[in-house]
Amino acid sequence: QLQLQESGPGLVKPSETLSLTCTVSGGSISSSSYYWDWIRQPPGKGLEWIGSIHYIGSTYYNPSLKSRVTISVDTSNNQFSLKLTSVTAADTAVYFCAREYTIREFDSWGHGTLVTVSS
Amino acid sequence: QSVLTQPPSASGTPGQTVTISCSGSSSNIGSYTVNWYQQLPGTAPKLLMYSNNQRPSGVPDRVSGSKSGTSASLAISGLQSEDEADYYCAAWDDSLSGWVFGGGTKVTVL
């Protein structure tokens, strides 16, 4: 059974960088059929796609966040990571990692981790 | 403002059918398949429907999906109390080269 687990600081100061890691277990991140995605949900609001990465390193980013986002992959540790720079209160959200069957659906999700941006 | 448009709420009594619409454009729903997610309070979204009308293992057949042109819909028949949740549609968007979601529909069982 595939499992995804987000980890990282729950509190980030304004203007600093948010960094999260998603650890994949029960399956390999090095599968050609899948992308690995980050999706967020501000409190009380809907889902927003942040970006995705394939194990070979190709990426897609949400145009509205592209200038601040970097997603990377570590196949040796079966992990992928998110960095979001220059954060503001608007970046406060639950951040989910998910497995994407390429351009078809998100078939497996992590539980999510709340990141609060505050001084 | 979400790229895909869903009604903010829908409701029905136990046993009734509730239908949720999802409206998009030629660059997303018109060109790609639609999937649907159910999100119970405080939990991660769960895949409910993929490729417009395919149910993952474990999703009951009283849940169905359809797509026509640039719109899609999700129907839940035989409504039960455990169906109370938020529902989101999603599709790939060619013009954005990324995923877009609907704003979500809160289903209430009266």
Structure description:
Chain A is globular. Chain A is built from no helices and 11 strands. Chain A is mainly β and 119 residues long. With 110 residues, chain B is an all-beta fold. In chain B, 0% of the residues lie in helices and 45% in strands. Chain B has strands spanning 9-12, 18-23, 35-39, 46-49, 63-68, 71-76, 85-93, 98-101, 105-109. In chain B, the strands form 2 sheets. In chain B, strands 1, 3, 4, 7, 8 and 9 form a 6-stranded mixed β-sheet that branches. Chain B has a 3-stranded antiparallel β-sheet with strand order 2-6-5, with no helix packed on it. Chain B is globular, with a radius of gyration of 13 Å. The model of chain B has no long low-confidence stretch (mean pLDDT 97). Chains A and B meet through strand 5, strand 9 and strand 10 of A and strand 7 and strand 8 of B.
Short summary of the structure?
With 119 residues, chain A is mainly β. Chain A contains no helices and eleven strands. Helices cover 0% and strands 45% of the residues of chain B.
C-alpha termini separation of chain A: 39 Å
Based on helices, strands and strand pairing, what is the structural class of chain B?
Answer: mainly beta
Instruction: Estimate percent helicity of chain B.
Output: under 10%
The run of helices and strands of chain B is EEEEEEEEE
Low-confidence stretches of chain B: none
What average pLDDT do the residues of chain B reach? 97
Question: Helix tally of chain B?
Answer: 0
Instruction: Give the percentage of residues in beta strands of chain A.
Output: over 45%
Low-pLDDT regions of chain A: none
Major beta sheet of chain B, specifics? Answer: 6 strands, mixed
